[in-house]
Design brief:
Oligomer: single chain
Number of strands: 6
Radius of gyration: 16 Å
CATH architecture: 3-Layer(aba) Sandwich
Bound molecules: S-adenosylmethionine
CATH topology: Rossmann fold
Number of helices: 6
Strand order of the largest sheet: 1-2-3
Length: 176
């Protein structure tokens, strides 16, 4: 669940938010500055990252996301199973890459953190693996920032993945 403390600031994502999740209830400050290409939090419009969280069984979604997701499920009842399989595939791919010697990951469109993130999987097999997450969705970025606070070698950058200059200069891409 996500609550914004300052209800007067409806444009941009900057401000103080409360995130309630399986990780607990935390207050986080989200900055507008430096968040290039990030989308606004629009509570009236369904959002792909939050719908994805709903499909995976997460709690970081709003009524508008659930309503739209239910419409999608009605059209395609297999979507939930398919997306959960996709998530399992991601886990297998990361393990395969680590086993092959890959120790740095750039996750474009990393989404809202759910159990079994890329860095958790990678570091299970190589504790020194580095991961750079990139997403342009405000909620996904806010959750990632909070989750990664104090975690060395893992970063989250708010950017549009098509903005290659920003992506390739993101913290962690060219060095620790
Ligand atoms: C379906 S989720 C995937 C989450 C995770 N990568 C996984 O495989 O489980 C897609 C993510 O891509 C992000 N996304 C979509 N378009 C993007 C863009 N142009 N730049 C950055 N992120 C984007 C969305 O915000 C969303 O969080």
């Amino acid at each position: 669940m996500l609550e914004r403390h300052d209800q007067t600031r409806l444009n941009g994502i900057g401000g103080r938010w409360t995130l309630s999740s399986g990780l607990g209830r935390r207050s986080v400050e989200v900055s507008d500055a430096g968040d290039r290409g990030i989308s606004d939090v629009d509570l009236d419009r369904a959002n792909a990252a939050r719908m994805y969280d709903f499909f995976l069984g997460g709690a970081q979604n709003f009524a508008v996301d659930r309503e739209r997701a239910e419409q999608v499920i009605a059209e395609n009842p297999y979507i939930v199973e398919a997306l959960r399989e996709l998530r399992d595939f991601l886990r297998r791919v990361v393990k395969y890459c680590v086993d092959a010697g890959v120790d740095q990951f750039l996750d474009l469109g990393s989404g809202i953190p759910t159990v079994g993130n890329v860095h958790e999987i990678a570091r299970r097999y190589n504790p020194t693996a580095r991961v750079t997450y990139v997403d342009n969705e405000a909620v996904a970025v806010a959750h990632s920032r909070e989750m990664l606070r104090g975690v060395q070698g893992v970063t989250i950058t708010a950017a549009d993945l098509r903005d290659t200059a920003t992506v390739l200069s993101a913290p962690g891409v060219n060095g620790p």
